[in-house]
Amino acid sequence: MTSRMHAPHTTCPGCHEEVFLDELVGGKCPLCGCSLEEFEESLGDFEGVIERSDLSWLIFNYFVFKQFVDLGVAPQQIMDFITAYGENADKPAEEWTKTSFSLEIPMRRSDRFRPKKCSACGRWFINGGKKQVAGDMRKPQLDITYTCDRC
């Protein structure tokens, strides 16, 4: 039932029942046969939603989200990255521009007490700083870097 909540739908002008767009039969209400042509004209607003809801795209987003959550990345950062990455889905693979990423992750207890080298200035530090995971969606490896508080 929850998967249907966000599906595009309208109220039929003939029988006044809620009708989902994927249930239309030839552009007509499946219950009374009333034409819904005026609503089909506004279907262009929902085309991106319908295309993005295919199973492969949902599975891809799930596994990307899960991988980053397991690393400790904040969910908002993950969703911003997936949205930016999703803007490339309509383009050919040669034109993709947002495949690289850099996301902040929390330091583990062992990371807090060992010496770390700042990736920006090259200084060694022990306390404070930020831990980041960076990479490219086209490549399998992830780079973990540390940045001191001064940079």
Description:
- The structure is a single chain.
- This protein is α+β, with helices and mostly antiparallel strands.
- It has 2 domains: about 1-50, no CATH class; about 55-145, no CATH class.
- Helix content is about 30%, strand content about 20%.
- It has 6 helices and 7 strands; from the N terminus they run H-E-E-H-H-H-H-E-H-E-E-E-E.
- The strands form 3 sheets. It has a 3-stranded antiparallel β-sheet with strand order 3-6-7. It has a two-stranded antiparallel sheet with strand order 1-2. Strands 4-5 form a two-stranded antiparallel sheet.
- Helix 4 (about 55-70) packs antiparallel against helix 5 (about 75-85).
- The relative contact order is 0.09.
- Residues about 40-50 have low confidence and may be disordered.
Architecture blueprint of SSEs:
Blueprint (H helix, E strand, L loop, with lengths): L1 H4 L3 E3 L6 E3 L16 H5 L5 H6 L2 H17 L3 H12 L13 E6 L3 H5 L2 E2 L6 E2 L4 E7 L5 E6 L4
Antiparallel strand pairs: 1-2, 3-6, 4-5, 6-7
Helix pairs in contact: 4-5
